[in-house]
Amino acid sequence: MQHAPAFDHTLTVFRYAYPLDRLLHQFKYHQQLAWGALLADAWLSRMPALPASQPPAVLVAMPMHLNRIKQRGFNHALELAKQLQRQWQLPLKIDGCERLIDTPAQAGMDMKTRTRNLRGAFATQHSWQGQHVMIVDDVMTTGASMHALAKVFKQAGAAQVTALVLARTLKQD
Length: 173
Known about the structure:
By secondary structure, the chain is α/β, with parallel strands linked by helices. The chain is 36% helix and 19% strand.
């Protein structure tokens, strides 16, 4: 990487590959909310507690634009975050941030295009002064979305931002 991302750490438990990719697709695009609960349970079985060294002050789900929520019927990242919040007893800030721009889907875009696509897409109305914010999302591919949102939190005073993702894509050998 030529530039470090705005988030400080990434925690993940799965590689984004078969069969997880199929399950996530069913969950996100076919309103199979039961798969979300199953995925969260699998996540929690591999990561039952957060690292005690620097616990976050708050969980925030990767926001979706209102048009996308209307289309899908729910925010998949928020559904996962609710499951994690119940287990870990951390505050979940549902209105912690918003997606202002209904950006095109990121799938198939390279890092440069994704970054350009997300410019100005997120905002927060809160002060995060000195807080450790943990952003929950399903998959991290290039990290462009996480970087864009973490940058907004840092500009609003967050001392630390951790990316908590169910799965991560890995470069092929």
